[in-house]
Every structure is written in structure tokens, then in C-alpha cells.
Amino acid sequence: MTSESATTAPADPSGDLLVRIARGDRDAFEQLFTDQSRILMAVILRIVRSRSLAEEVLQDCFTEVWTRCSGFDPERGSGRAWLVTLCRRRAIDCVRSVQSQQDRDFADGMKTTAEAGEQVEQTVIDRAESDRTVSALKILPDEQATPIVMAFYQGLTHAQISENLEVPLGTIKSRIRDGMKKLRDELEAGR
């Protein structure tokens, strides 16, 4: 009977390999990968539904097996059950991560679209206002329109306008004030 028990395969081959891996046995790791990778890949693939993602998850799982298989306790269950649980947990985390990223990307896209729409709307409003202002400026006499254009579109000060047009500063201020009043009246009448 003793010789029979020596040739009999262990009751939990994956568990025995995990115990050996916990002691740093590289051959046991290679054997576990060879024996279990196809089954574990199928488990993962059923969850993530993408071969490339499944391959990444499987690689992460075997990295975790090598670094943390000391967490396997043969008295709590079989080695294969521990591996399947590890792979399922990692696959579910992967799906959640991918879904979360897709949700963030969608939200960012919606926000960007809304912002772009607001910018277009503001641009249209600004152009309409600008067109109305230009039309209203054409109604003003040149002596009022010119200093207003110089002040608001060229950014010149009243003193600089006075100097450029060779008109007294008080006169420039009066022309701008009177022209702005006419502009305001014209723009409000157009609304």
C-alpha cells in the first residue's frame, strides 16, 4: 500500500503547486501556468469579453500568484478554487474599471459638447451685437463715430485721441459722451 500511495497523484495538484510557489519554486510556477492558464483564461474571458483584456488580467493574476500565493490556505479550499476566485475578482475589477473610464469619457464628452455649444451661441450673440453696433456707428456723424472707434476698438485714451485728431480734450470727451448716448438709444430701439 505504501508504494501505491507514492504513485497516486495528490488530491489537490494546484494547491500543492501553490504551496511550492510560496516557497519560491519557479518550476512549480511554470507547471501551474501550464496546467491552469487555459481554464483561467476561459473564466476571465467570459467576464471581460475581450481577448486582449483577458490576457492582461491573466498576466496580472499570475503575477499576484507569484508574489502573494502565501495567502492560499489549503485547509480553506482547493488550489483551483483559489485561482478561479482570484481570476474572477480581477476580471470583475477590470470590467468595473473599464466601465468607469467609459462613463468618465462620456461625461467629459458631454461637458465639452455643451461648452462648445455655449461658446458658439455666445459667438453668434457677440457677432450680432457687433453688427448692430457697427450699423449704429454708421448713423453717427464722423466727428462722434471716429473718437468712439478709436477709444473702444483701438484702446486709445481720450488724451491720445485728442492728440491724434488735434482736437481739444474737452471736445473729444463731449463727442464721445454724446455719441455713446445716441448709440445706446439706437441699440435699445433695435431690440
Give an account of the 3D structure.
The protein has 8 helices and no strands. Helix 4 (51-68) crosses helix 5. The chain folds into 2 domains: 8-104, Orthogonal Bundle (Rna Polymerase Sigma Factor, Chain: A); 123-189, Winged helix-like DNA-binding domain superfamily/Winged helix DNA-binding domain (Arc Repressor Mutant, subunit A, Orthogonal Bundle), CATH 1.10.10.10. The protein is rod-shaped and about 105 Å long. Helix content is 83%, strand content 0%. It starts with a helix and ends with a helix. With 191 residues, the protein is mainly alpha-helical.
Instruction: Indicate the CATH topology of the largest domain.
Output: Rna Polymerase Sigma Factor, Chain: A
Per the principal axes of the C-alpha atoms, what is the gross shape?
A: rod-shaped
Task: List the helices and strands in order.
Answer: HHHHHHHH
List segments where confidence is low: pLDDT < 50 over at least 5 consecutive residues: 1-5
Instruction: Assess the beta-strand content as a share of residues.
Output: under 5%
Helix proportion = over 70%
| Major sheet | none
Global Rg:
39 Å
Give a count of the beta strands, DSSP E runs of length 2 or more.
0
